[in-house]
Amino acid sequence: MITRRSLLGASAGAALSTVASPFALQAQRPAAEVPQGPVPEAIARLPSFAGKVAPFTNDERLARIARAKELMGQQKIQAIVLANSTSNTLYFANVRLGASERLWALVIPARAKPFIVCPAFEHDRAVEMLEDTPFAHEAEILTWEEDESPFALIASALKARGVTSGNVGLDENMKFTFANELMKAAPALHFVSATPVTGGCRSIKDEHELDCLRTAGAATLAVYEAVYLSLKEGMTTRDVHNLVLMAYAKTGLQGEASLNIDEFTAVPHGSRKPQTIREGSILMLDDGCVVEGYTSDITRTFCFGKPTDKMRKVFDIVKAAQTAALKTARPGIPLANVDLAARKVIADAGYGPAHKYFTHRVGHGIGMDMHEWPYLSENNMFLDDRAPILAANMTFSDEPGLYIKGEFGVRLEDELHITANAAELLTPQSLSLDEPFGKA
């Protein structure tokens, strides 16, 4: 079963990879089994969203590699070594290099062709993996035997390509043991984070990527609305989970949603405890789906029945905070300012100070990972010690929340796109607790 956290790592082509083979491009984890039984009318009416966006091409990935090399020049990084990072290797090369005790790596030098490092007995599989990548027919695959050091191999390969000193960037997801051994194998090199390159590329979306995000968002809202129209009193979170699976099956996409009810909506990421919908319950539905490797992340809070006056008031405060973040965001603005704008609305409404009721940042970058660089927060270590600023075509969640422990919480989450001189939401804002899917 896909969960919120497993979907965070879902990415391109083979969006949900097989657990047994973290490197396989073709093998995919079977979609969660769709529950049998009557399909509610609202779900039966859902359209298919499959195939609405074209797959990414090798030319697009080659352009990404060229941009990475530009950033390496700006950051004075001689090469980047990517390992244990499925989304980074998919982004640049359409190759899935997941976690293993044996090192597989994609190395991109600033002034030479990228190459793959893998165990010798995996050579043929590596060749097969590269068939549909920018490296097909010309990639260099360097192999190491079980009694050899892959780290010494990388050091030697970098030296052969002129990288004998200076900075080499390591994937932020690389295992400590890998990073440590590589540092010992190449003491003349200075190892730094590759995030200024990988995050620098991935944080700026092109139109193809934006089309994926828009389509994923539209599909998620359509699923949420169909599920909302299918709810009945007495349903449990498990029942609603089954409705979500039915709905995504109709769209042709892989996705998930978590539901929390009443006092559990005051816990930002919810609870596993059994929960049941009652008349007057407040519900929070959160998560998303994947389109060509790009994920949505949307939250809707609504009521089953009539909301209380306090629920309506809190909803209005949270919506105003979401709008404040939207109006603040534009190129050149520090990322922290967007968070502070939303936080001020909630504190000024009597729910302060700072993080007492609004307990998390207002947003995170979104793209191939549900949470990725950069983040709408004061605590943001993106490129260096300077406060990072917004740039055109960055994408984020805009998700303020107000959580009253023991009572209820409200969170509204849509995806925020930084335009040339302002910002837009890729999905319509929720109108109210009574009309969460009305068109503004």
Automatic annotation (TrEMBL):
UniProt xrefs under SUPFAM superfamilies: Creatinase/aminopeptidase, Creatinase/prolidase N-terminal domain
InterPro entries listed in its UniProt record: Creatin/AminoP/Spt16_N, Creatinase/aminopeptidase-like, Creatinase_N, Pept_M24, Peptidase_M24B, TAT_signal
Gene3D superfamilies: Creatinase/methionine aminopeptidase superfamily (3.90.230.10), Creatinase/prolidase N-terminal domain (3.40.350.10)
Signal peptide per UniProt: 1-20
Domain Peptidase M24: 212-420
Ranges of residues in domain Creatinase N-terminal: 64-204
Record key words, sorted: Signal
PANTHER family named among the record's database cross-references: AMINOPEPTIDASE, AMINOPEPTIDASE YPDF
The name this protein goes by in its record: Xaa-Pro dipeptidase
